Structure formats: structure tokens, C-alpha cells
């Protein structure tokens, strides 16, 4: 049985249910791919996001719209049944939170942990490998890195793992130094 800690309410219960079904039917990878595709489509399409979130659409309209999207992307049968159930229960608005919680459960199952990495410049393969090694050593699990460039950073990295943040950016060090200097002058 998967650990239910850190899952969010109703969305967490739905995520746990679809995760356990996917585990039983060996469809974890297929459902994970479908959810990744849906997450991207929700970010790209204001119309799809509105269909998912707006309560003005009927169950039938949501089901027709979601079925069309799932058919177009060739979604797994379990993903399709699950999303149609969400439509029938008027819970489709929970989809983004369900996807997040499902991914958390998959990471735990695989012994992985997601890490958001912001850097001043694009990291090369050697830097990514070293960062993965250091995070695995510190966290005890394989990190799944999501790297982004943040031009507002002067240098260094900001790494977020769950609710923890490791900030080794030059900007935060300079701000800390500035605060320390202000304190010393009083």
C-alpha cells in the first residue's frame, strides 16, 4: 500500500486510487505518460484548462471534450476510464492536483525524488551529473531534475526538493552579506 502522507485531500485519494490500479495492471508508465501529456496540454490550451476547471460545463460536455482529447493523444484505457469517472463525479477540476500527487506516488515507488533546479546559465551534462550525484548522496534517493535557467540569478543554483530549498545563488549570498554588514554597523 502506498504511503498517503503528503497527498492533498480528495485529489490525493483519487491519485492513490488510480496509482494502485495502474500498479495492479502494470500501467504506471502509460498513465504517467498520459498525465504528463495532459499537464502540458493544460498549460498550453486555455480552452482545455477552462473545460477542466469551469463548473459551467455539464458532466456530458466535460466527458465529450476529455474523451476527444484522450482519443487524440492515444491515451491508455485506464487513463480514459479514470478521467471519465472524474467527469461523472464532477471532480475534473482536481486533475492538476491529482497529476501532481500521482507523480509523487510514482517517485516514491521508484525510489526517486523530484528536484526543481534554477541556474543562471544552462547546465552542461557534467554539471547535471555532478548535481544528481550530490543530491542522491544528500537525499538518499535518485533525483529527477527539472532544470530551468533564471537570468535574474547572478550565479550559482537554487534547488527545491519538496518543501526544502537549497539556495547557493550568488544573489542570496550577496543579500546575506549585505544584511550582515548592516547588522555590524549598528
Summarize the structure.
Helices cover 61% and strands 13% of the residues. It has 186 residues and is of the alpha+beta class. The longest helix is centred in the first third of the chain and has 17 residues, at 28-44.
Write structural notes for this entry.
This protein is an alpha+beta fold and 186 residues long. Helix 1 (9-24) crosses helix 6, helix 2 crosses helix 3 and helix 4 runs antiparallel to helix 5 (77-88). It has two domains: 9-108, N-terminal domain of the delta subunit of the F1F0-ATP synthase (Peroxidase, domain 1, Orthogonal Bundle), CATH 1.10.520; 111-184, 3-Layer(aba) Sandwich (Glutaredoxin), CATH 3.40.30. The longest helix is centred in the first third of the chain and has 17 residues, at 28-44. It has a four-stranded mixed beta sheet. It has helices at 9-24, 28-44, 46-53, 59-73, 77-88, 95-110, 125-139, 170-184; strands at residues 112-119, 142-149, 157-161, 164-167. It holds the Pfam family OSCP. InterPro entries: ATP_synth_OSCP/delta_N_sf, ATPase_OSCP/dsu. This protein is part of the stalk that links CF(0) to CF(1). It either transmits conformational changes from CF(0) to CF(1) or is implicated in proton conduction. It comes from Rhizomicrobium electricum. Belongs to the ATPase delta chain family.
Number of helices: 8
Which H/E pattern describes the elements? Answer: HHHHHHEHEEEH
Structural class: alpha+beta
The total number of structural domains is: 2
Share of residues in strands: 5-15%
The number of E-state strands comes to: 4
Distance between the termini: 57 Å
Secondary-structure arrangement, i.e. CATH architecture of the largest domain: Orthogonal Bundle
Low-confidence stretches: 1-5
**Strand neighbour order, sheet with most strands:** 2-1-3-4
The proportion of residues forming helix, as a percent range, comes to 55-70%
- The CATH superfamily of the largest domain appears as N-terminal domain of the delta subunit of the F1F0-ATP synthase
Radius of gyration, whole Å: 20 Å
